[in-house]
Structure formats: structure tokens, C-alpha cells
Amino acid sequence: MAAEIVLPPELRPSDGRFGSGPSKVRNEAVAALVAVAPDYLGTSHRRETVRSVVRRAREGLVALFALPDGYEVLLGNGGTTTFWDAAAFGLVDRRSQHLSFGEFSAKFAAVVAGAPHLDAPDVIESAPGTHPEPRADAAVDAYALTHNETSTGVSMEIARPEGTEGIVLVDATSGAGGLRVDPGQFDAYYFAPQKCFAGEGGLWLACCSPLALERIERIAASGRWLPPSLSLPIALENSRLDQTYNTPALATLFLLAHQVDWMLEHGGLEWAASRCDRSAEILYGWAEASSFATPFVAKPGERSHVSATIDFDDGVDAAAVAAALRANGIVDTEPYRKLGRNQLRIALYPAIEPDDVATLTGAVDYVVDALASC
Ligand SMILES: Cc1ncc(COP(=O)(O)O)c(C=O)c1O
Could you give the dihedral angle defined by the CA atoms of residues 233, 236, 240 and 244, in that order, rounded to the nearest 10 degrees? Predict the structure, then answer.
């Protein structure tokens, strides 16, 4: 049935990619990559052609996040999942505290729980669709927060727990570049480029404060065994040379640098976040006015402006809606698989046009009507 529904032209967004990651890559960035490809792709990552792209990305991120003096941008291969392992080796001293409120925040907590050289972490959980608050604890040397829990569409404000000396590690995989953040509130703000940075996966980046850099160096000096591919001191040394320890994907680096430049040219993080705000207002406003859709996250202040989750009434089959959208070229609106809800998840990253979000809401209404009359 879903495959038979044909959207009229006015209900087709200019771009049908609404996935939360991999997410929409801007066509202009791909065209720019094609233009430089003969001199760039397939060249050494230890030479200036590629290193200048890494430098552009690193310097651009310093500007985008207004990182104070002494902060540095580190990068390495493997995406955020690899960074969790690197952090368990190189940033957590003995005991970490984790806010666990979805699939991804739970995964980092599990990494640390399994690390034989660390104490059992303090894990504070809350129900899907909410987030817990950290609590200051003198025994904790690292607080693990998540700016945006992509699996549930909950975002939280990043603030250091008061009265603590522990470093603050923030998983900003889907929040970085789309949500506002004060660099004074974190020590490592880490992410991967396949979300707001409209690039490809397989790379991690971490904006590190002097406290985090000092922790990295102190743990390395303590003699703890660090596997080289997960070694943050090695990543730091290579990042300072605008390189990665081992061979990176050059297209990923290019798309990242291009997106950072694009954001900076338009006004930086404030511009990018405002664009996400606009998309969020359109989507949540539509859901609140709808007779069948409701924002999954109850508290408006916790509703993500980069990856939104919208529940449907029992009478509307969200999977059938997503399938009909997919058949019309609007892809990846399915919810996070393990959440198991009757909902759509829609990315609102800076690359996504707010007007396309408005068109998408019209398309959903059309499909729901059409399914009802099937
Ligand atoms: C919040 C969050 N953390 C971590 C990850 C894992 O990132 P990666 O696939 O780069 O390892 C994701 C991926 O979607 C994510 O959304």
C-alpha cells in the first residue's frame, strides 16, 4: 500500500535525506570535492595538499566553537565509538560518572565498566525521552555527558557539575555544530563528521581544554598501557602536525573542512544553531498542532533541535508512513531501531533546509490521509 502512494510535486522536499547519520551531505560540497579530486584524492596524507585541509578543519573548529587559548583540536580514525575506547585508556583516571539516557550514552558507560584498569563507573540513568543530571562527587575524575542523545532525540545543556574537579567529557556526535555550547563548560567535546558536519563517518574529532591535555599527558607518563591506535598522546602529536596516526579517508576530511567553512562564512555556530532552531520550531509546531503526532520528548527544553523524535497515535503506523516516504525519495525517517516506538525520527542538522522540513510535514500529513483511505 505504502509503495502505491505518490506524493504530488509540491510535497517533495528539494532534498529527501532526513537521516540522523549518515546524514545529508551538501551537493555543493560533493561538487567541490569532485573539482579538487585530481590533485587531492589519492595523494599522501603526510603532504601539504591534505595537511592543509586538516589544518583548515582544525582551525575552523577553533573559530566555530570560539575555543579559548590553550584548547586544541585532536583527530583520529574510527569515529566516536573508537574515541570512547581512547578515552577509557587516556582520559579517565580511575572513576567516571555517566549520564545514561539512550543507546549511545549507555555504550560509553559500558566501555568504561568493562575496562579492567578502571573502577566501576557511577552510572546515572533516566527513562528514554528524558535526561538525568550529573551530581558532584569527589571520587569522580571524569563526567561523561551527551549533548544530544541521537537515539531518543533528547538534548541537554552542557554545564560543569558545580564544585567538582573532574574533567567534563561531552559526546557531541550529533550536537556539535548544531547546538550552542560554551567551551568553558567542557574539557573534551568530541564528535564525528557524519551529522552536523555533513561529512562521512570514520573519523573522530575532540576539542580539548588544557585540563584534558594535561590529563592525557599525565596518564601517558604514568606508564599505563595504551594501544597505539587508541593512544591520545599519539593522536595529539599527529594532530599538531595536521595528520592522523594512520591513513585517513581523504573525502571525509574534505567534506568536514568544507562544511566548517560553509558555517563560518554564514555566521558561525550561532547561524547554524539558529537554522536548526527554525527547523525544530516548524517540526515540533506541526506535531503539537497535529491530531495524530506528538513530540516524544515531553519537556520542550529537552527536545532536540538536531534530531527530532515524533510519536504517532496507535491508529497511524509510523513504519508504513516511513515506507511510503521512502518510496517517494524521502529517506531514513525511521526511528532508532532499538527504541521500538511508533515514531519517526527526523534530522534537523544545519545542512537540511528548514523549508524542506516544512514540506516534509505536509508530505507526512498527505501520506497519513492516503493510508487511512487505503
Ligand atoms: C550520540 C552519538 N554518540 C556516538 C555515536 C557513534 O558514532 P560513530 O558511528 O562515529 O562511532 C553516535 C552515532 O550515531 C551518536 O549519535
Answer: 110
